[in-house]
Amino acid sequence: MQHILIVDDEITIRRALEKFLGEMGYKVFAAGDGEEGLKILERNPIDLALVDLVMPKLDGISFIRQMKIMAPETVAIVLTGFGTITSAVEAMKVGAYHYLTKPFELEDIATLVKTALEHKELRSENKALRKQLHEKYRFDSIIGKSDAIQSVFELVEKVADTDSTILILGESGTGKELIAKAIHYNSRRKDKPLVTVNCAAIPEELLETELFGHMKGSFTGAIATKEGRFKAANGGTIFLDEIGDMSPKLQVKLLRVLQERKYEPVGSTQTEEVDVRILAATNQNLEEAVKKGRFREDLYYRLHVIPIQVPALRERMEDIPLLSSHFIQKYNKESNKEVSGVSDKARQIFSHYPWPGNIRELENLMESLVILKSKGEIEEKDLPEKIRGYKTAHKGNTQVNIPDTGLSLRHALSAFENELILKALQKTGWNKNKAATLLKLNRTTLVEKIKKKGLEKVIAKHEN
Predict the structure, then answer these.
(1) Do 303 and 319 sit in the same domain of this protein?
(2) Sorting pLDDT into bands at 50, 70 and 90, what band is 454?
(3) Domain range spanning residue 111?
(4) Which of 88, 165, 214, 390 fits a 20 to 30 Å CA distance from 309?
(5) How far apart are CA 90 and CA 420, in angstroms?
(6) Are 346 and 231 found together in one domain?
(7) Which of the listed residues 294, 311, 328 is the one where a domain comes to its end?
(8) Is the pLDDT reported for residue 389 higher than 60?
């Protein structure tokens, strides 16, 4: 039930409103002056206040000012006579939602109260959604404890609250868009739009109008003027995914936006200015594309102000248990299933599979397994043949495949080191002393490496 406070020194108006709004289903409080109204506000949650402007002790404008300090979410509607409309406008400047002149019809009050409460509810929902987004894209909400992903977090934290252009590099499925969202929602532009454009998913002939808009009649089929994504993102951030697929013609227009923050919609001679931060991402090797003449060198350097390399999943294998657990919880909740986890044998198989589709492949697999398994532990027999049989099919094959985008030697070596540590522990029955001897390390050094790499939880399951 929504709560309404009436603050008016005219007893007939106060009682009429109290009766009328009570019959509409609201819980109504009434006060004869501003001071009494503030006391009621202190003791009760109030959704909306109907406030007379001219009252003894404390006038309506002073009441609204204090109300906005005490209960900033409470909506105020001002009741005023014809002679005080100027004061009503002044009341709106200090926070009133609307005003109604006396005498008024009760039906007008009903309509205005309903509209004002709907406005308050919508505003609260938007605020809650923004909070959820900010929570969702906090750095610690991105799953991973490996050195490879932690170094990405550290860099994102340093650059998020700047206006620098950022180029996010990495294979498909590594979570480049998630990193872009984390940057935006932790920046000073977080309350402004984040607009995402997949440059590879939109045909070349349509991408220009999608980005910059067009004027009515500028080409066949342009039956109305269209606003582009850059204008929609004004004040916020635009994320250009798969930037490597952009045509040379559009690369020239994008370069101008980066340099001057200006562009012309298709079919227009009017230059428009835009205040927008640009984040871009690609799974291509842009340096190679520049050498081959497929990507402008000047645009590359404009985009490459701060590069962020997102590691492939095979470079952060120690994060697979955490990611698997996260996706199991997610799809248990969405599908009302009761899968408890992944067996040790299945987890071992995961550690040998190279995950060419990266985190996206792992997530799709876990969604499928949760739905098909329904409850209990995911076992080796539940896994698809291509994953279950990968180690056998590639036994003795030590060839390392380097993707076209390249790979981080440091991350690859870290992942290989993790595998060696886990294999040594497994071979010695999870005895750290014996594993350290096998690896020709001091026990203290091994323990420090395990801690630094976030392997404690994996090992603890086997020690218990």
Answers:
(1) no
(2) confident
(3) 3-132
(4) 390
(5) 72
(6) no
(7) 311
(8) yes
Q: Which residue has the tokens 């090992």?
A: 459
What does the pLDDT average to over 354-367?
94
Residues 152, 35, single domain; the answer is no
Pair 44, 128 in one domain: yes
The reported pLDDT for the residue numbered 405 is: 62
Amino acid at residue number 422: L
Domain CATH number, residue 414: 1.10.10
Q: Residue 99's closest CA among 50, 41, 26?
A: 50
pLDDT of residue 119: 80
* Euclidean distance between CA atoms 311 and 317, whole angstroms: 10
Model pTM score: 0.60
Q: Is residue 302 located within the same domain as residue 444?
A: no
Number of residues in the chain: 464
In this prediction, residue 291 carries a pLDDT of 93
Task: Give the tens place of pLDDT for each residue, 139-173.
Answer: 555 788 888 888 898 899 899 989 999 999 999 99
Q: How far apart are CA 425 and CA 445, in angstroms?
A: 14
Q: Are 276 and 156 within one domain?
A: yes
Q: Let me know: does 255 contact 212? Beta carbons within 8 Å.
A: no
Percentage above 70 pLDDT, the chain? 90
For 6, residues 6+ apart whose C-beta sits below 8 A from its C-beta are 14, 17, 18, 21, 28, 29, 30, 31, 49, 50
More confident residue, 101 or 399: 101
Judging by DSSP bridges, how do beta strands 277-282 and 272-273 pair with one another? unpaired
The answer to whether 92 and 62 are in contact (CB under 8 A) is no
- DSSP structure class, residue 441: -
398 is written with which tokens? 């030590």
Whether 292 and 331 share a structural domain: no
The CATH number that applies at residue 68 is 3.40.50.2300
Query: Using CA atoms, how far apart are residues 292 and 272, in angstroms rounded to an integer?
Result: 33
Domain boundary among 385, 404, 423: 404
